[in-house]
Amino acid sequence: MMRWLRAWLADWLDCIDIPLLIGLLLILATSLVVLSSAGAEDGQHFVIAQGARFAAGLAAMLLIAKIPPHRLRAWTPIIFAFTLALMPVVFAVGSGRSARLWINLGFFYLQPGELLKLSVPMMVAWYLHRVVLPPSWTTLAICGLIIGVPAALIIRQPDLGTGLLVGASGVFALYLAGMHWWRIGLFVGAGLASLPIAWQFLHEYQKNRILTFIYPESDPLGTGWNIIQSKIAIGSGGWFGKGWGNSTQAKLDYLPEHTTDFLFSVLSEEWGWIGVIFVFSLYIFVIGRCLFIAANARDGFSRILVGALAMTFSVYVLVNGGMVVGLLPVVGVPMPLLSYGGTSAVSLLAGFGIVMSAKAHRKFMGA
Amino acid sequence: MARTLRRQRIKNNIAESEQFRRRSFIGFLCIALAMTGLGFGYFRLQVLQHHEYQLRSDANRIKPRPIVPARGLIYDRKGKLLADNIPAYRLELVPDQIDDIDKTIIDLKNIVTLDEEDIEAFQQARNATRRFRPVVLKLRLNEEERAKLAINRHRLPGVEVVPYLTRRYPYENLFAHVIGYVGRVDAKDLEKLGDSKFSALSHIGKSGLEKFYEESLRGEIGYESVETNAQGRPLKTVGMQKANPGFDIQLSIDADLQRATIEAFGELQGAAVAVDPRTGEVLAMVSLPLFDPNLFINGISHANYRALTDNLSRPLYDRNLQGGTAPGSTIKPFVALAGLESGLRKSEDKILSTGEFFLPGVSRGFRDSHHGGHGWVDLPESIAQSVNTYYYKLALDLGIERFDRYMLQYGFGKKTGIDLPSESIGILPSPEWKRKRFNEAWYPGDSVNAGIGQGAWNVTPLQLAQATAAIANNGEQRKLHLLKAKRHGFQASWKAETLAPSNRIANDPSHIESVKTGMWGTVNGPRGTARAIGVGAPYVIAGKTGTAQKVSRKGSISFNPNQLAMNQRHQALFIGYAPADNPQIAVAVMVEHGGFGSSTAAPIARKMMDAWLLPKSTVAETATAQKTDASVVKPVPAISP
Lengths: 367, 641
Known about the structure:
heterodimer; A: mainly alpha; 15 helices; globular; B: Penicillin-binding protein 2a (Domain 2); Beta-lactamase; 2 domains; five-stranded antiparallel sheet; 24 helices; elongated
C-alpha cells in the first residue's frame, strides 16, 4: 500500500517542473498577500475566494501535466470545436456588466473567452505540427481562420483585451513556427495601415479608453480618473513602498478596480519599486523557464504550443503593467495570476499544466 | 536553389527545432527588453517623480475641512442684542451621490417648498463646485420640512440636512441702515477676499456695520485635516487648526432712543442722527423709510427686492451716509463762527437787515425771511432770528475760498470717518465744483447764496450732527463712531475702544460762546425761530432751524430745480443740542418734503432729546439691570421667516 502510494507520488513529482512550480507559487503567494491588503475589510473574503481558485487551478495544472502531449494533441480539434461552440451560447444567454462575457453554470461563471486562450494556440500548434515549416501562404491563411474567427467573436462580445490575447497567442505560434521575417513585416505593416479602419469598429467606451490614454487629464473626474489615480498610487510608492496594508489610494477608494485590473498598482504603492522589480523578475523567470522547456520539447506540437503560451503570458504582464502605469490604454487585461478573478487564474494554471506535460514527457516523445 | 527547396517540402523536425530555438531566444530577449523598459517606466514614476506623486497622494487623501467660527454678536450700548446667531438647517445635495438630480429635485418638491430661485441658485452653484462637494439647495428649513425629510431620507441618497448658524436681527427694521445685513457669500465676494477658503462661510457682511466690521465679526476660519475617501466622506481627523471666533461688538447706539426717533417721525420720511458731543458716540441713527434686513440674510427673493427698489422713497438708500441736502439756515452758526475766527466780525457788531440785500450793479435782490427785514442785529441775534442779510454780507466778505476752508475745517465736504462703509463727502459750494459740474463761471451771487446754505451745497445729516456736536462740545470736535467696545469670545470682558483725539475747530472759546448764545436764542430768545420746541422742557435746548429750498424765488439767483431729485427739495432741517449749559446730546434732523424746519424737524429733535435726557434719572436702576443682562443672550421675539 505504502509502496504503491510512494510510486504514485513519485510518478506525479516526475510530471512537475520544480523551478517553474516554485516561481508560480511565489507569484500566487504574492497575489494573496496583496489581495488581503487591497481587499481592506473584505480582505479575508478575497483571500479565501482567490485561494480556492488557485487550488482549483493548481489541481487542473497537475491533472493536465499527467496527460501526455500526444493525447492532448489528439483531442485538440474536439476541444477547439467545443470551446468555439460556446461562443454563440454566450451571445444568447451570457451575462456581464457591460458585455456578455460569462455563462452562469450555477456554481461557477464560465468565461468561454478564457478557454479559447488555450484552445486557439492548441489548434494552431496542432495544425502547424501537421504541415511543413516555415509556414506557407496556405498555412498562414488556414491559421488566420483558426485565430481570426474566435478572436473576432470575442472582440464582438465585446472583450477587446481577451480578443487581442487570443489573437496574440495564435500569432506567437506562427512566429515560433518560423514564419518568414519579411512576411511578419508585411503583416505588421498591413495591420498598422488598417488601424484607422479598425478604429471605426471599436465601441464607444473602447474609443474613450484609448482617447483617455492619450489625454488622461482631459477628463480627470471621468474616464481619466482610473489612470490618474493609478499613477498616483504607483508614484507615491517610491523605492520601498508605503508598506503592506498602507495603500491609501486603494483603502480610501480613490483607485477603482483595485483588486482586479489595478491590483498591481496597489502592489506598487505598498511595496515600491523594489516590489515591482521582484514581481517582474518572477514573471521573467517563469516565462524564460517555459521557453526553455519548449525549446527542449521533442515534438512540434508541444514546442509551438508551450512557446506560444509563454509569450502570451508575457503579453498579459506587459499590457497590464503598461496600462496601470499609464504607458498603454486601459484594456481589460488582468495581471496574470495576481489580479483577483476566477476563470483567468484557472485557465492560466491549466496552461502551465500543458507546459509541465511537455517537460515531463519529452523523453518519451518521438518525432 | 529555390526550386530544390520547394520540391523538398517535407517535415524536418531537427531544422524546425533549431528554428524554434532561435525564434524563442529572440522572443525571450524581446520580452526581457520590454520588461526592462516597463521597469524603467515604473522607476520614472516611483523614484524620479516620487515626490510629486507623494504630494498628490496626500492631497487626494487629506482634505482640509474648514471650521467656520460663530459670527460676532452685536449689542447696543445697554447690552440689548441687535444681531444674533441662531441655529438653522439647510438642505444640501451631493451631486456625485445622485444618479438623476432633476428627478431628485422633483421628489424634493413634494417634501419642501422650492421655488424657481432656489433651483436656479442651486444649478449655478453646482456648475462651480466639484461633484463630490455638497451644494446648498435651500436654507432655513422649517420644522415640518425637516420632519418630512427625515422620514424620506432612505429613498433620497445624496440629500443631506445640515445644521448651521444663521444671522437674525431681532429688532427687524430698527437698525436696518446702521447694522446693515449679511447675505450669502457670492462669487464676487470670494474674488474680493482672494481665497477660496471663504467659500466655507455661509454669510458675509454686505452692508452697514456688518460690512464695515466684517473681519472682526467673522473671526478666523479654522481647519480640520480630514482623511476622506474618494466619495468625499470624512473618515478621521488627522490634524486641526482651531477656528478663532469673531469679536462681539457693542455699539454706542441706544435701542430705546433709536425707537423713539423712529416714532417721532411718524409718517414722515427723512433722517436723524443723535450724538454724544463729549465723545462722538452716535446714540441714534435713523434713515426713513426703513426695511427689514432679515429679508437679505438667506437671499432675498426677486419679488421682495423689486418691492424695495421700485419704492420711490428708496428705503435701501441711507440718507445719513449717502443722502444729503443743502444745509439751508442750519449752516449759519458755522458761517458765523467763520466770521469770528477770521476776524471779519465781532460778536457785538451789528448789521442792518432791510428785507432785501443788493449786490453792487445787480438789480435783483436777495431777500430776508421777514418782509421789511430784522433791523439792526448782532451775531447771536442773527442766528436766533436767522437773518439772511447778515450772512449774505459775511459770505461775500469771506470770499468763497476762505469760506470753504472754514467749512472744511468744521467737517463739511469731507467724510466724518464714521465706522460705516460708502460714506458720501457731500458738496462744498466752490468755483471748481461749479465749473466741473455745470461748466459755468462762479458769480458773486453764488457766494451770497452759499452764505445761507443754499445753492451748490450738499451736507449729510452725519456732517451736520458732527459739526453741531463740535459747537456743543465748545469747539472740541470728536470723531463720530458707532463702536463702543469689543470682546473676543463669550467669556471675555468688554474692552472699550479708545477715543480718537479731538480736533479743535475754533481758536477762541469766546467765538464758540457767541455762536452758542445765538443757538440758545433760537429756542429761548424772544424772537427765536424755534421757540415752540422749548415749551415744557425741563432742560434748555439750543439749536438752529433750516429749510433747504431749491425752488427759485423772485429776485434771486438760483439753480435750475429740474437738476435736482424730488426727494432733495424742500427739506426741513434742525440741528441742536441739550442741555444748553452742559450738552449731552447733539442732534441733526432732516425731514423730506417737510416744509419749514421749525414746524416739522424741530419737534422731532425735541422728542429725541426727551427720550435721551428725561428717563436718565428715573431709569438708572433699569439701566444697571440691563447692563448685567448684556452677557446673557436674552430670548428675543421670533421673526417671520
